[in-house]
Amino acid sequence: MEISVIIPVYNAEKYISKAVESALQLEEVKEVILIEDQSPDNALSVCRELAQQYERVKLFQHPDKGNHGAGASRNLGIEKATGDFIAFLDADDYFLPNRFNVEGELFNDPKVEGIFNAIGTEFLTDKGKEEFLSNINDTYLLTVNYPAEGPEVFKGLLGQTPKVFGTFFTLDALTVRASALEKSGLKFNEDLRVHQDSDFIIKLAYHCYLKAGTIDKAVAIRGIHDDNRITKIKKYSPQYNQRQFLFWNSLYQWSQVNALDQDAKQHISLQKKAFELSVKKGFSKAKTLFAAIFKDPNILKTKYRFTYTNHETQ
């Protein structure tokens, strides 16, 4: 296997060296692509040093040298990648030695276009740990509840399987064929500054044939620290609801131009409407809510069902 590992870099000078070196230790990694996104710290200098030190490390910035967010950075990384497979890594996370242990065997099946695995958690600061436990309170191992593949993965991520599949797995633990991304034309939504990874994964599960890999133990570690923006937002606060609305609205717009089954379309539509209502206030909110309930009472079951479990630093 020849794998291109894409790392968007923003405000991560303290962590990026460990992330890069964790990828370089793996023989399957053909190249590590750093997309520096106008960091306010010294990350660009660290990235330059890494690119000079290691032949497999390639450093890029956006053409205008500006800040465009993780979605745009990952899209640029995909454009620059030359490997047959794509993997992603956040700049404050790192791979474990077993990261690609099952990929070689599972990708022997030509219908498999992506493999997802489990990741663990490391608390890098006391403040980050406190915010994480109070606002996210996720388990150490971020994984799904049982192995699945194909259309069941998409249904599971939307919570539409008889047995609870789990609502998320992270980019750090995803490996996908470069040809599958090219075939589907799928890109990260650059308008989403957060949750664009969740958005991408759900869409990927629809367009491509994904299969569970190592889901009972970690193949990578996510770092929790003071600068994780997502851990600072309390669930169901106005800011949380606004971000969730933007996420579900992105999926809603996508669902309208793709041939999803009616149950999936309805679920996405209801989630979008629920969070749209949650950001309204006063009489406008009450009026819109009553109209929505009259149209479909199932909306009362949706608002608090979806929980977000990943983190990002930009």
UniProtKB/TrEMBL annotation:
Keyword flag Glycosyltransferase: yes
EC number: 2.4.-.-
Statement: the UniProt record of this protein carries the keyword Glycosyltransferase: yes
Gene Ontology MF terms in the entry: glycosyltransferase activity
Domain Glycosyltransferase 2-like as annotated: residue spans: 4-109
Record field: transmembrane: none
Swiss-Prot/TrEMBL keywords: Glycosyltransferase, Transferase
Pfam family, any one: Glycos_transf_2
InterPro entries given in the database record: Glyco_trans_2-like, Nucleotide-diphossugar_trans
Name of the molecule in the record: Glycosyltransferase
UniProt organism field: Chryseobacterium herbae
